[in-house]
Design a protein that fits this description.
The complex is a heterodimer of chains A (152) and B (154). Chain A is of the alpha/beta class. Chain A contains four helices and five strands; from the N terminus they run E-H-E-H-E-H-E-H-E. Chain A has a five-stranded parallel β-sheet, with helices on both faces. In chain A, strand 4, helix 4 and strand 5 form a beta-alpha-beta unit. In chain A, 34% of the residues are buried. Chain B is of the alpha/beta class and 154 residues long. Chain B has one domain: Mannitol-specific EII, Chain A (3-Layer(aba) Sandwich), CATH 3.40.930.10. Chain B contains six helices and six strands; from the N terminus they run H-E-H-H-E-E-E-E-E-H-H-H. In chain B, strands 1, 2, 3, 4, 5 and 6 form a six-stranded mixed β-sheet that branches. Classes of the chains: A alpha/beta (152), B alpha/beta (154). The interface between A and B is medium-sized, with 22 and 16 residues.
């Protein structure tokens, strides 16, 4: 029986599809959702400008904490519209380690991630406890089956 | 460009020492100064919207901070209040700790984007221990504003 879902969010369209799928499922089965956004660990500040070669400069800036919260609150707003219980988590660190910790801490039964998440599928499936659902981006998005489910 | 936290928060909506100890009563206590501003058109609906959301999810973000919030047409614009509780209030935070800083936010249904970004800005600000500690130690409402304004400019 699935009572608690862990939804891994980031700032991509794929994650939004995963969120909609997870919220629809949670609504149908009355599950609680833990939505998590994982920020990268802050880079150590170089001692001098010379110690950071130009070629090592990140091509894209890391998402800001504010942006991460905005993604989380948008999903929370959608959850509220569906009467789905949700808790928001903003963490920093290595994504797989943080996901694993949260799965264990909150005893989640299912993890929902975007199919285009930045980690290899095998790694996620092998290292996280319990089943994982990979949701394709919106184009091929399908709602969870409602067969044999009681309508509200 | 959305308004800053320090622009949304009015001086009359800062309660340096909350009298109430229970979540529902604290929300009503924080709503009182907002009612006086005339920006809440329906008090009953406003309180219900906040409590409805509160019953569905924890608005305690941890570190002793809670941000009860709702989108409701019982307010005419985005509104914000801040209350401090020395004893702490149980907002069912995931870290299990009571909340000492409580921000109440509401916005009309149509102001979703500004509402989301205000929540995001505030949550981001409140994760900083220097901001939280400063707000907890502030002796006056002016000091509260000075801390928020100072960190919003960084």
């Amino acid at each position: 029986m699935i009572e608690q879902l862990l939804l891994w969010l980031d700032d991509t369209p794929g994650a939004r599809s995963a969120a909609r799928w997870a919220l629809d499922l949670a609504r149908i089965i009355s599950a609680r959702v833990y939505a998590i956004y994982i920020l990268p660990e802050p880079e150590p500040v170089p001692r001098t400008k010379r110690s950071l070669p130009v070629t090592n400069l990140p091509l894209q800036p890391a998402p800001s904490e504010e942006r991460a919260w905005a993604v989380l609150y948008e999903v929370e707003d959608e959850a509220f519209e569906r009467d789905v219980r949700i808790s928001l988590l903003l963490e920093a660190g290595e994504p797989l380690a943080r996901l694993k910790d949260v799965c264990v801490t909150y005893k989640t039964d299912l993890v929902v991630v975007s199919a285009d998440c930045p980690l290899p599928v095998e790694k996620i499936v092998n290292q996280l406890p319990g089943p994982v659902v990979f949701v394709k981006p919106e184009k091929s998005f399908t709602r969870p089956a409602r067969a044999n489910m009681k309508e509200d | 460009m959305f308004k800053k936290i320090s622009e949304l928060l009015s001086r009359s909506a800062v309660v340096l020492e909350l009298k109430e100890k229970e979540k529902d009563a604290v929300i009503k206590e924080l709503a009182a100064p907002l009612l006086a501003t005339g920006l809440i058109t329906d008090e009953k609906e406003f309180i219900q919207a906040i409590l409805r959301r509160e019953n569905l999810e924890s608005t305690g973000i941890g570190f002793g901070v809670a941000i009860p919030h709702a989108r409701t047409n019982s307010v005419t614009t985005i509104i914000l209040a801040l209350g401090r509780s020395a004893t702490g209030v149980d907002f069912n935070s995931l870290d299990g700790k009571p909340s000492h800083l409580i921000f109440l936010i509401a916005a009309p249904e149509a102001m979703k984007r500004e509402y989301i970004w205000t929540l995001a800005k505030l949550s981001s600000l409140m994760r900083r221990s220097d901001v939280r500690n400063g707000l907890l130690k502030a002796q006056t409402v002016e000091e509260v504003f000075s801390i928020i304004e100072g960190h919003e400019q960084l």
